[in-house]
Amino acid sequence: MKPSIRLLEGRRVLVTGGARGLGFAFAESIARAGARVVIADILADRVQQAAAELVAMDMDVTGLVVDLADPASIDACVTAACQCLGGLDGLVNNASVTNSGGKTCEELDIDTWDTVMKVNVRGTWLMTRACLPALRQSGTGAVINLASDTPLWGATNLLAYVASKGAVIAMTRSLARELGKDNITVNAIAPGLVLVEATAYVPEARHRLYTEQRAIQRAQLPEDVSGAVIFALSDLARFITGQTLPVNGGFVMP
């Protein structure tokens, strides 16, 4: 997506999981919309390569390493991001793991469940908590949590992931009420099945089924989600908070 209007001019935004897939698409689109961006990812080599690619396109992007399962790593990342950007106006909690794809409730093991919850739920909470002082100081802080449409229709054989993204939606509502007094908005974006590396495990037949059951009958690409993220970070959404926006081509219409 290449916005014709620079809705995020001068904003400072941290995007987690920005080294590839949806996160990289978000980082590129947010930077094109005028923001200065820090992308943070556990993939050390890849995050630097991703940042370099965007810098080569004359975007103000920096790469940092973070492990969302490690609270100390999260704190260090946020400190470095704020030093780099001179503050923070927006946070995109994009990073997550699936791990449980294809496993039934009975096949799912405790270690996998705990890993998914540690990154997707606890990591989202800790990253948000670490960013709050800077977001409060901004005066127009915005938090975007990447959920999923799977909790909205009850995807099977994906229990840990679905539960974690349902928790993200619930946290979004609670945080929105808690942080509204600080003029910080908190919203969730719930994509459908997007064609990225992370969904490579999904059988081709299931991709076809998604496409056939969408109102817009084509594959969903990362750039299809970027516009919603830019809008939610912008001043156009300053009176919108606690909401979950499905972006799935009409697969789910809650």
Automatic annotation (TrEMBL):
InterPro entries: KR_dom (IPR057326), NAD(P)-bd_dom_sf (IPR036291), Sc_DH/Rdtase_CS (IPR020904), SDR_fam (IPR002347). The keyword Oxidoreductase applies. It holds the Pfam family adh_short_C2. One of its GO terms (molecular function) is oxidoreductase activity. SMART domains: PKS_KR. It comes from the Bacteria. Keywords: NAD, Oxidoreductase. Residues 11-192 form the Ketoreductase domain. PROSITE patterns: ADH_SHORT. The keyword Oxidoreductase applies. Belongs to the short-chain dehydrogenases/reductases (SDR) family. This is SDR family oxidoreductase. The lineage of its organism: Bacteria, Pseudomonadati, Pseudomonadota, Gammaproteobacteria, Pseudomonadales.
